Amino acid sequence: MTRREVESRYRESLIGRLWIILSPLLLLMIYTFVFGVVLKARWGSEQDTFSFALTLFSGLLLNGILAEGLSKAPGIIQSHSNYVKRVVFPLDILPVTPVLAAAFNALLAFLVLCTVLAFAGTPPGWQALLFPLVLLPFLLLVVGLAWILAGLGVYFRDITQLVQFLLILMLFISPVFYPVSALPVAAQAWLYLNPLSVPIELTRSLLFGAPPPELLVVLSYCAASILVFWSGLVWFLRVQEGFADVL
C-alpha cells in the first residue's frame, strides 16, 4: 500500500518516477532563491546563501513527513469506507501508509541533500549514516498521532481543519527557520515540546556539525515517541469498533 501511495503521485506524468529526485532538487532551488537571495535570511554573519538553504531544507524535509502524515490521517478512514463496511481488513494499516510514503520521499531527499553537500565540497561524514536512527522515533511519534487523528476524524469531521492550522503553527514554532539557540533560554525548553524540534536538531548535527540537543532531551523524546505510538494504537483499536455505525 505504501508503494501504491508513492507511485500514485507520479502516475501518468511524463517523466514518472524521476519526479522523486527532481522534486527535492527543485524545492532546494526555490528555498535558495526565496530565503537566501530575496529575503537574505542567515543564521549568523558567517553563513552564506547556499549554506542557509541547505540548513532550511534539512528542517523542511522532516516537516514534510509530519505534515503529510497528519493532514491525511483525519479523513483516511472515510476515504476507505469500503474496507470498513465490506471487508475484514486491519484498519490500523491505513493511517500508517501516508507516513511511510512520506518517509520514503524524505529518505530520497536526504540522499539528494548529501549529494549536493558532496558536490559543494563539504561532504557529510559517517554520522550521516545515523539518520535512520534519528528518523525512527520521529516516525513512531507521527504514526501514533496519525492513529489518534484517524480515530477522531471518523467521529468529528471538523478535526481536519483544526489539524491544518496546528501543522502551520508547529512549522513556525519549530527550529526550521531559526535555531533553538535564537530563543531565550526559558523558551527553549518549550520549543522541545514540538515533535519536530529534536529530530531537526539531530539531523543538522549529523550533516552540519551543529550542537545536538542534550542527551536527557533526546532520551525523553524517544520515551515520549514510544508512549504516543502505543497510546495511539490502543486508542485506534478501541474506537474502530464503532466505525461501521458512523460511516
Question: What is the mean pLDDT?
Answer: 84
Number of distinct helices: 12
Give the CA-CA distance, first to last residue: 22 Å
DSSP strand (E) fraction? under 5%
What would the principal axes of the Cα set say about the shape? Answer: globular
Please bin the fraction of helical residues.
Answer: 55-70%
The total domain count is: 1
User: What radius of gyration results from the CA coordinates?
Assistant: 19 Å
Counting DSSP E segments of at least 2 residues, the number of strands comes to: 0
Q: What structural category arises from helix and sheet content?
A: mainly alpha
Biggest β-sheet description = none
What ranges have pLDDT less than 50 throughout 5 or more consecutive residues?
none
- Helix-strand pattern, N to C? HHHHHHHHHHHH
Structure description:
Helix content is 69%, strand content 0%. It is built from 12 helices and no strands. It has helices at 2-8, 19-38, 49-72, 76-79, 81-85, 96-119, 131-155, 159-172, 185-191, 197-208, 215-239, 243-246. The longest helix has 25 residues, at 131-155. It is globular.
List the helices and strands and how they pair.
Blueprint: H1 2-8, H2 19-38, H3 49-72, H4 76-79, H5 81-85, H6 96-119, H7 131-155, H8 159-172, H9 185-191, H10 197-208, H11 215-239, H12 243-246
Helix pairs in contact: 1-6, 2-3, 2-6, 3-6, 3-7, 3-8, 3-10, 6-7, 7-10, 7-11
